[in-house]
Each structure stands twice: as C-alpha cells, then as structure tokens.
Amino acid sequence: MTHVDHSFIPKYKPHLVMDSKKNKKNELIMVLNETMREGSSSSPPWQVLDLVADHLDPEALATASCVCKSWSVSMSSDHLWHPICSATYPSLSNLRRAAAAAVPYRKLYSLGRAAEKRRLQKPPKPRLSMADFAFAVDIQNSRGSVATVLKPGAQLKLDKNGVFRFDIDVEGGDHLAAFDELDSLRITWNVVLQGFDGVFTVMDCKGKGSFILGLEGWFSKELPAAGCCSSGAASGLVADLRLGLRESAAGKVVAEKMSVGLLSIVSWRYVCVDDALRYLQHFLLPCNY
Known about the structure:
single chain; disordered N terminus; alpha+beta; four-stranded antiparallel β-sheet
C-alpha cells in the first residue's frame, strides 16, 4: 500500500475534508485556482492530487486535467472515470468489456456526453419560410383539366395548433369542370420556389372509388427521405390532400375546397410548420455539402 503524506494537505487547504460534497468541490477548485495562479512555483504531489480527484465531478476533473501534463495524467486515470462512466453510461462501459478494447473510460464518458447533447439539441431554424414558395395543385380527369390552384405561401392561414395543414378555396364556383368517378382524377401538388427557382413535387397520384357528396375525396402519398444520400428510403412523412365536394347548379360534382398537409407516419398527426419547412428546403434550396 502506498503511504500518503497527509501533512502536506494543510499547506494548501487545512479543511478539505468536509461533510458537504458541494463544499468539498468548492474548496478543491480553490486549490486548483491557487496552483494555476501566476507566480505559483509549487504543485502538490500526485498522492494529494489523487485524494483531491476522488471528490471532483466530471466537469471539475476535465478542468483540472488542463492545468499541466502531470495533472492531466492524474485526472484522466481509469480508476477515477470508471465509476463515473459506469454510473452515467453503463452501456458504454459494458461495450468496452465486450469488445475487449483498451479505450480510456474518460474517452467513453466524453463520447456518451457528446451523443447525449446531440440527441437533446434543438434543430436549427429552417432557412425556408412560408413566404418563399407557393402551392400549386392541379386536378385533371380523363377529359382534361378540372382545376388549377396557385396559392402563395404568405397568403395561407396558419393552423391554430401550429401544424403544417392548410385549407384552400377552389375559385370558380359552378364554372369549374365537373367529374363523376374518383378513379378518373389525377392530383398533382407542387411546391414552387419564389421566382420559379425550384420545384418539388409533393404528390402525383390518381384517385380511386366514387364520390359521395358532403364528404371529402382523400389522396395521400408517402414522401422520400430528405437529403442527397437518401437512396430512395422513406422519410416517415405522408403528403395529405383532401377535396371538399358539392353538387353544382347543373347537378354535377365539383371540388369546392381542398386541404393540404404533411403527416407523420409514426403518430399520424400533422407535423409542425418548422419541421415541414426543414424537410422542403432539402429539395428547394442548394445543398450545403
């Protein structure tokens, strides 16, 4: 067993041993500050550093390891970081044993802490705004165009719950082209960047079934993953478009209004506006890579 010269401790701080762990930390940090103070030529022996380190939390240990090379060696030892890493990130400690890898526990703790911060980090604000694009919805049947709706994003009324879902009136009234069978319809929903600098086709599909007045004709399409390295994978989002139907004065079925939005496959709820904008900007704005 190594003999520790305890008589050295009072020379730095005679009251390091306290009942409160918080007070211990404060006093020990004062020791570190005194040692780092300009003009201080002495440094405590490694035995004292070892005693001090047992009372420090991860942040204080990391700070102390930056004092000098000898402090870095003392404050980075596995016997100090093993219990900390095992208590905070037990899976990483188990991984070291399973992989038989000589990875320092301090590094494992650092990796776990960095991963935790990334997971909890809020996503950046979208670079795209509602004023930067317009919705263009085209409805066709076997005989030709039924309706083409162009709605600037700045004119869309935001949902009170802050989700990416919008109601759009189909102008034209009884002068709109009529249709009978839902399977004769083709719905195309494009998001057009301001100045026609970019276009993303959110939906291009055909309807099936028959119309029932007073109800909605529903169209949906699963969206591709965002980014240039998606390899055709799914995004977990679904484009949703619904047509509000009514009977015209001539007794024909016409689309009076529509609603569009983006749904999450996980919750089957509409995503928030910022999440939808972050998704759309991958297809409408230049890639940063």
